[in-house]
């Protein structure tokens, strides 16, 4: 997304990809990511979400491809629990559109969900699912049409600021450029300043899919994206896009990973037990056996807030990483901010709360 946005401003943009765009081991693997305008802690991110929603539409128009499935979204939990009150507080702080659906309304409109008597739903009319592979490939293709150059199978081994610019090294080649945006995700640690490395860590995120007894009940037209947080259990997911399986994964279970290149690909026994039990309790119309599972890497910060801004002490190296499992919904907006910082540093600005210098 940073590549695409930079290419709309500057005719000389170079993108490095360690493998190929949208390769199956990236943090965007797994078909879809949720887009929501409403979630706990929305308020500081709300302007970026608004910009991202606009840019997803722009990318769809420019590429001619459908990227954001606008099916709406549900946040589900106990009316007086820890989740729903905190969610509504964030929503009211930013003024996002929403409706609160009581238990009876939820049962009538969305009978797929098995709810406790005191559980309610918060409806987000602007939510939906992002087709991650399509989004990435569309952005790269649009950037190339604007004149950007993409170097595939070119993992970057070092980024060093010099008197003349920034030297980018990859295997047996190097380039000197005016400015660099570091967007390496779980692999970005080695490219960060030493003082930031102790404040980030790679993680392993598990995604799972189940088969529906009646797939029509889980079609995008009748089954919005969801996140359900109850007492001791939680799950999020998206409607069926293949007419057979439904994405339903445990929420908040990202575990530290030693090496993003060597993640355990299959669920552990404990993970399998928990995800099956949770799916069975939430969705009586899903067959409670995992039919597909995989894991993907991401980079987390110790405070859960992205590194978006200039590297400490630099005006040439922009960091856009450490999105801590919540980055893709705002990737287009984050990419636009990063591109503006790199290409117009005197006038552009990133949100102060994402400034990497907070760890310096």
TrEMBL record:
Protein name: FAD-dependent oxidoreductase
Keyword Transmembrane helix among record annotations: no
Keyword hit for DNA damage: no
Domain FAD dependent oxidoreductase: start-end pairs: 12-341
Cofactor: FAD
Biological classification of the source: Bacteria, Bacillati, Actinomycetota, Actinomycetes, Micrococcales
Protein source organism: Flexivirga caeni
Source taxon at top rank: Bacteria
Matches recorded under Pfam families: DAO (PF01266)
GO molecular function: flavin adenine dinucleotide binding; sarcosine oxidase activity
Signal sequence residues: none
Gene3D superfamilies: D-Amino Acid Oxidase, subunit A, domain 2, FAD/NAD(P)-binding domain
Keywords linked to the UniProt accession: FAD, Flavoprotein, Oxidoreductase
